């Protein structure tokens, strides 16, 4: 095969120079040209790697002009010689200034104007969330990239293998794949990276590759090495290991399949970073947009707020009932450490108190109760995730509290031991809701074993047989809803979340109640998610909540302090 580097050099003098070195996060990495020797096809390339998906150094996803695309930017048009999927789901395009499509897996709404408005509101709402991320699993199995991820053999890849193994080889499917790969690589570039773009165009010149295929001397393995080198330059550091694993694959079909998989991950990295980079603009406009969309629906459906009104009424009733603890927020204020001048939490109800209680009630919502507040429909799935996370933290903290009460204090002063015990317990309690007794039996056995090993390794006194039996019994009792340890921990986590709503996460973490200190990091994550969700909802629907709460709280009760208004 003619050297692509020579062809590039003839077109652009100096195009075959070795790449310069650039700094990435304080560390210097050489370009693929110098790091990989003569395998490297092409010319100078600027280091243009996005960082990890949490913060790539990229501004936008640029897609090369082409026809209809499937997920991951793969062309949907079938060829007569390559078996192609009949349907392709499109990868959401991300354009600055335009609302983002819904997150993966969201159900398709009906075609009525009302459902369309609701769908648009949910799309903007989802995109404005700080935790909004598209994930690799969103790739449809009907797309080429999705096909590349399937573990079961597919007709396409089997057909490709047959073509390349034929004598003489048939390169029709290979050319189609190379064309798709080229377009994906180009879509990962920024506009200013014109030299790198030219290099890719030269190295993967489809007209030239077609001529080679017609002569029967298309070197697929050689081109795959070039693609891998280019992926090293463009991928986020978190994808380095995946790309390196591909370098050890010698089978051309397996290699192409792996390339498609990692390219799909790279596109998700870029899309997610673009979403994150647009967060400030999205959040700025989403409040007004969501409120306007909801008002349009309310104008057409005057009873739209019925469930919301009932939800807030129940929260107010809970707070005024004799059994309700009117000192919750006072406890919250004292536990977090602010002075009375910072946060005043007197006895009378306030809109903030009622709303915080209402939000907490959503974390214990009966799934069979269809009267879910209309203002939180878009967040129902997130609230269910928070409920699941909170329940798992309740079990985790209960286990740690019981285990620590039977052990020498030195054992649970070891961060390494606590972290290990937390990892083990978290993995075991994932199925707690479906089979609590069985799960807690496994937890008790594992925890007792870890405690024995920990005490022995630290030279501490071992548990007596009596204490061991008691520890196992108390751990297994956590499976019961009425278990006192579990109930206390659950109440304290709820109080912590209420404090987060009123005071913020950091102030609420200053003085955690007993039993929660060992899960401080997990509580901080839960609290941040809860605050992010509830505060955004409060911003959007504050006018509606205020009008409803006026009917529930008398003017004499309404507070004029920070916590008194929405």
TrEMBL record:
GO terms for biological process: protein kinase A signaling; regulation of sperm capacitation. Residues 1-117, 323-347 are annotated as: Disordered. GO terms for cellular component: acrosomal vesicle; sperm flagellum. Transmembrane segments: none annotated. It holds the Pfam family Tcp11. Residues 25-36 have a biased composition (Polar residues). InterPro entries: Tcp11. Residues 323-336 have a biased composition (Low complexity). Residues 1-24 have a biased composition (Basic and acidic residues). Belongs to the TCP11 family. PANTHER family: T-COMPLEX PROTEIN 11 HOMOLOG (PTHR12832:SF14), TESTIS-SPECIFIC PROTEIN PBS13 T-COMPLEX 11 (PTHR12832). This is LOW QUALITY PROTEIN: T-complex protein 11 homolog.
């Amino acid at each position: 095969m003619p050297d692509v580097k020579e062809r590039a050099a003839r077109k652009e003098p100096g195009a075959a120079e070795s790449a310069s070195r650039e700094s990435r996060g304080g560390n210097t990495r050489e370009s693929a040209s110098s790091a990989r020797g003569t395998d490297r096809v092409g010319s100078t390339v600027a280091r243009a790697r996005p960082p990890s998906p949490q913060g790539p150094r990229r501004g936008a996803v640029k897609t090369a002009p082409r026809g209809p695309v499937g997920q991951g930017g793969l062309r949907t048009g079938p060829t007569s010689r390559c078996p192609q999927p009949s349907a392709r789901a499109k990868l959401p395009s991300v354009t600055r200034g335009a609302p983002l499509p819904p997150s993966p897996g969201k159900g398709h709404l009906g075609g009525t104007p009302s459902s369309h408005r609701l769908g648009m509101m949910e799309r903007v709402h989802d995109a404005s969330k700080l935790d909004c991320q598209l994930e690799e699993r969103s790739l449809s199995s009907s797309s080429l990239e999705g096909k590349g991820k399937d573990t079961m053999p597919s007709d396409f890849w089997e057909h490709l293998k047959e073509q390349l193994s034929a004598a003489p080889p048939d390169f029709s499917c290979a050319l189609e794949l190379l064309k798709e790969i080229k377009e994906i690589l180009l879509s990962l570039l920024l506009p200013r990276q014109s030299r790198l773009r030219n290099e890719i165009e030269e190295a993967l010149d489809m007209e030239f590759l077609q001529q080679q295929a017609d002569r029967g001397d298309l070197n697929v393995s050689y081109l795959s090495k070039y693609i891998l080198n280019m992926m090293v330059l463009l991928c986020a550091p978190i994808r380095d290991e995946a790309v390196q694993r591909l370098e050890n694959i010698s089978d051309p079909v397996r290699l192409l399949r792996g390339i498609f998989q990692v390219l799909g991950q790279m596109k998700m990295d870029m899309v997610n970073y673009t979403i994150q980079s647009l967060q400030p603009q999205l959040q700025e406009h989403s409040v007004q947009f969501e409120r306007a969309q909801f008002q349009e629906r309310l104008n057409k459906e005057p009873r739209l707020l019925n469930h919301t009104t009932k939800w807030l009424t129940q929260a107010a009733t809970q707070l005024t009932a004799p059994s309700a603890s009117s000192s919750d927020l006072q406890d919250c204020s004292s536990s977090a450490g602010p002075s009375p001048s910072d946060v005043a939490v007197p006895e009378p109800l306030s809109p903030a108190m009622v709303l915080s209680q209402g939000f907490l009630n959503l974390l214990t919502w009966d799934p069979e109760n269809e009267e879910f507040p209309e203002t939180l429909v878009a967040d129902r799935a997130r609230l269910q995730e928070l409920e699941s996370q909170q329940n798992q933290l309740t079990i985790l903290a209960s286990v740690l509290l019981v285990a620590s009460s039977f052990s020498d204090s030195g054992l649970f002063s070891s961060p390494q031991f606590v972290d290990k015990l937390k990892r083990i317990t978290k993995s075991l309690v994932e199925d707690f809701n479906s089979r609590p007794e069985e799960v807690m039996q496994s937890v008790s056995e594992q925890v007792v074993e870890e405690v024995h090993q920990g005490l022995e390794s630290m030279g501490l006194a071992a548990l007596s047989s009596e204490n061991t039996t008691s520890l196992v019994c108390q751990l297994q009792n956590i499976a019961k809803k009425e278990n006192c340890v579990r109930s206390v921990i659950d109440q304290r986590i709820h109080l912590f979340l209420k404090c987060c709503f009123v005071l913020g996460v950091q102030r609420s973490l200053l003085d955690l109640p007993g039993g929660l200190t060992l899960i401080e990091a997990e509580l901080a994550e839960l609290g941040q998610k809860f605050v992010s969700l509830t505060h955004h909802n409060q911003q959007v629907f504050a006018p509606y909540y205020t009008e409803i709460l006026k009917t529930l709280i008398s003017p004499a009760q309404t507070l004029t302090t920070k916590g008194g208004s929405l």
